[in-house]
């Protein structure tokens, strides 16, 4: 029988939706009072009226680039030194400052993130539990403890499960082999590539590491070939998908069918460059609303591509599942000296409801760009195609040929701009 970190992982999906959206208005009101940037995002929005995903979709998406710019602007503002850390450091997106935050981390940008003292702050405990870690285990943590929060993410999760942690960090491969040989940990957390390096070094040193039977990976792709490599060495590896902004978003279970969405977040898949949800199964950008009271990001665009998987996981967990990381949503491309953005493609489609999906394909050698819009149209009409070309030119300031294609023929990969130029 499958064992769960919390029994609520198996409640009916409809009940979970009701619970999340019943909690959301109070969370938004707290964020409005204490996080100035969230208050600005919620201008004109009646939080009490948000009762489901359709209502949520009316709130603008905030993307990482906007979060970074808000932090940079606050830090550079005149008189910024007198501002509270909530605004000066975190750009107004955090509800806590020094004292309430136990730690502050930096991600590339730099973007600064707070961590409070709430148990399992980053939400990775259930992913560890799904990977087989149990109270009393020793967890060998090979994520970095410096600058970025990855090391703390796994340590706080392990403590919530009831495990002891060895902070291995990264590098010093021979010392890692020695420590694992001495301590005999029950499992590893870190990137799959670093565990492979450790195991290869152990083989070179003729040191057996039989205690490592499970692993929880994040921070890198974990393809089937690498999964098979670890299985051949007696290690069951599972993956978790998260970020420094949002914590853990989804995790792999024994079913090995996609990633189950974490509790306490609302995950949407939207059309790249927009905030509009796509149909289940269609590839789009992952957008998350988190009920984290300390860092309450609202409709935060991750920039990652994924898709919702249909049905319920065979492992018994009932939350939505995603296919996992499928690439990046930011497909901004420079054509004839002009940037073309996914949002411009979305604006074209908004004018032409007869087009179900479209993709701008840029070809040609460097300096001789050719832009073609492939458009799914059931019954292409020359007048429609002319108007479509006019819209592309008006919105992008660039000419494009229009190529009608059959509905459903474009790949379901989330791409709305494809750079197919030759750079030889």
UniProtKB/TrEMBL annotation:
Residue ranges of domain AMP-dependent synthetase/ligase in the record: 132-289
Pfam families named among the record's database cross-references: AMP-binding
InterPro entries found in the cross-reference section: AMP-bd_C_sf (IPR045851), AMP-dep_synth/lig_dom (IPR000873), ANL_N_sf (IPR042099)
PANTHER family: BLR5969 PROTEIN
Protein name, per record: AMP-binding protein
Species whose genome carries this gene: Allopusillimonas soli
